[in-house]
Design a protein that fits this description.
By secondary structure, the protein is α+β, with helices and mostly antiparallel strands. Helix content is about 40%, strand content about 15%.
Length: about 230
């Protein structure tokens, strides 16, 4: 069997296996009464299975896409603006916008989120731009959400650790507490739910929060008018 055929069979297996994982949810729903912790764990295991399959599918599809020249090369198809963007503000702060909220995860790490951020950074570098590197950084994650759009409010149940995992060794040397300080914020909005991720030197923390404390300044800041 040649390598390409083997990989195509692998794609078929991944899709079938991911779909089969939903059987655990169906079995759990029998009887109508579900233990909340058991349900949450099963949901996250199902998501983790699909995410792992999606990441491998992404790798295989990019590897064989005509004209790409292999994995991690630019696709010949136009990219859809469904993931987010990266920009550097004029004072050396790195700003990542995710067009989604942080995932709810108590038991499984959201591998897709770390992978998405890594690919956004790859795209930024591919445009000829250089990523900043912070010896001691502050990571600020600010979710812009409506009350109706967010059902999980506990910060420790959100997958924010995937963000620090994605930048470790690339934008900061490590994600230990002496190297990377973390602030988790929330801003109520009426529309366009998203997640703003800002990395800056720890010495600039006062300047950042001075901007963030003003509604007008914060809106201009996230819209890029402060660049």
């Amino acid at each position: 069997m040649n390598e390409m055929k083997r990989d195509m069979i692998r794609i078929q297996e991944l899709v079938g296996s991911a779909f089969g994982q939903t059987g655990a949810l169906v079995a759990l729903s029998d009887g109508g009464h579900m233990n909340p912790k058991k349900l949450q764990k099963t949901l996250e295991q199902t998501m983790e299975h699909f995410e792992s399959a999606a990441l491998e599918l992404r790798r295989l599809c990019e590897q064989y896409s005509p004209g790409t020249g292999g994995f991690s090369k630019k696709s010949v198809l136009p990219a859809m603006d469904v993931t987010g963007s990266v920009e550097e503000f004029g004072y050396g702060w790195l700003h990542i916008t995710l067009n989604t909220l942080l995932p709810h995860c108590r038991y499984q790490n959201p591998n897709w989120l770390a992978d998405t951020i890594s690919r956004l950074l790859d795209g930024y570098v591919a445009c000829g731009k250089e990523l900043p590197f912070y010896r001691r950084a502050l990571l600020v994650i600010d979710e812009h959400t409506t009350i109706e759009g967010r059902h999980i409010f506990d910060q420790d149940n959100k997958g924010w650790k995937a963000v620090s995992n994605a930048i470790k060794g690339r934008v900061v040397p490590d994600d230990d507490q002496h190297t990377l300080a973390v602030a988790l914020l929330s801003t109520k909005v009426q529309e366009r739910e998203c997640c703003h991720i800002t990395l800056l030197h720890q010495a600039d923390a006062h300047d950042f929060f001075a901007v963030h404390s003003s509604d007008y300044a914060r809106d201009n800041f996230y819209s890029g008018r402060w660049c």
